[in-house]
Amino acid sequence: MPTNWPSKFGGPSWEYVPEADEYYLHLFDPTQADLNLANPDVREELAGILNFWIEKGVKGFRFDVVNLIDKMAFEDAPEGSEGKEFYTDGPKVGEYLHQLYVEALGKADVMTVGEMSATTVEKCAGYSKPENEELSMCFNFHHLKVDYKDKQKWTLMPFDFQELKDLFFEWDLKMEEEGGWNALFWNCHDQPRALSRFGDPVNYPKESAKMLANVIFTRRGTPYFLYGDEIGMTNLNSTSIDDYADVVSHNAAAMLKDEQKKSDEKILVILQAKSRDNGRTPMQWTNGVNGGFTTGKPWLRLNDNLETVNVEAVLKEDDSIYDYYRKLIELKKSNPVLQQGNTVPLLQNDPNIYAYRRQLDGEEILCIHNFYGHQAPVDLDLAGYERILSNYDDFNPAAGFLRPYESLILKKTAD
């Protein structure tokens, strides 16, 4: 085997082909062979594929784990390493991206977003600053590892709120300073649902869902949300390991059982919290058969909360999560401060609250988010601010505290 690198999906990252007496590299699943972008013919083919879709009118492209396209050296990983240093953020990543920009992307009015694996804010700033002509913006996943015990995914622990805030402030400030652009998100097809992870879908489903939405819409960057976020979809909470279809989840279950000797009951609890299938269940349109998604057999079973968490039911609510998302979208589209304003961190060590100012041309918006299901004191003077939007229907500047999961977007009106 050429190197000892493990696949990110479990097992070795090299697959032997007997007919050719050769190995090929797959940092992920064996059906997903890594392309050799060091070969100019491969890069030319990729530019041709992009131009094919651009000519058909496609206006946006997402590049999967694109910072892994430059393999710097094929050497065994030293003990305690997985070999990431040999293929992550290589020196030619920017060069390869720039070539695609020149030969395809830069010729059309298209948006590009790069998904980044184990990257740095400095690298992402370089990939996304306009003058480098590489990408429009970057996804990073550091904030979605704050509930990894010892930085291992298949573990259980409460999320580290201070680490979460520190990461948000670091990425917002450094990307602004270096001219890069963030792609902001909580959920995607590779993650469990944020409402189950950072909110409280049982006691405060609407309040915590709206708070989480406020965070991604008011930070500096472009907000993304996954289908179902707008109605409050949650983790699946399956009752059997067999309910999960994801190859990574099954590989993890085998590892937890064989190497860590965990029981099926403990493995199930971990999958309920961490499996990617939590973010892949069918869209819940109605409370009918298969959530109104299909008359056939869906790839995953529907959530037990289908009766109340479905589009048909949510659209009938006066204070729905869906309606709140619509308001946030309109606010982001119409407000230059939230689009381009700089970020000023506030209450950086507060154990409950994530707060910051956005400022542009003398205008100021104050954003304050309580991440917990209890009342939290606010050490800020809110006199002279008016409510733009919040997840409670009133705002008292003299209260001195935030209610459970309360999240305020305020505009400064007077000194």
What does this structure look like?
With 415 residues, the chain is an alpha/beta fold. Helices cover 28% and strands 15% of the residues. The protein contains eleven helices and 14 strands. The chain has helices at residues 40-55, 93-103, 121-128, 161-178, 194-198, 205-218, 247-258, 264-274, 311-314, 321-334, 336-340; strands at 14-17, 22-25, 60-63, 111-115, 137-139, 183-184, 222-223, 342-346, 353-360, 363-370, 376-377, 385-390, 401-402, 407-412. The strands form five sheets. It has a five-stranded antiparallel β-sheet with strand order 8-9-10-14-12. Helix 3 runs parallel beside helix 4 (161-178) and helix 7 packs antiparallel against helix 8 (264-274). It is globular. The N and C termini lie far apart (68 Å). The relative contact order is 0.09.
Structural class: alpha/beta
| SSE sequence, one letter per element | EEHEHEHEHEHHEHHHHHEEEEEEE
**Unreliable stretches covering 5 or more consecutive residues:** none
Distance between the amino and carboxyl termini? 68 Å
Number of strands: 14
Spatial sequence of strands, sheet with the most strands: 8-9-10-14-12
Residue share in helix? 25-40%
Into which percentage range does the β-strand content fall?
5-15%
Question: How much is the radius of gyration in Å?
Answer: 23 Å
Individual helix count: 11
Mean pLDDT: 97
**Major sheet characteristics:** 5 strands, antiparallel
What gross morphology would you assign?
globular
Q: Keywords, please?
A:
415 residues; alpha/beta; 11 helices; 14 strands; 28% helix
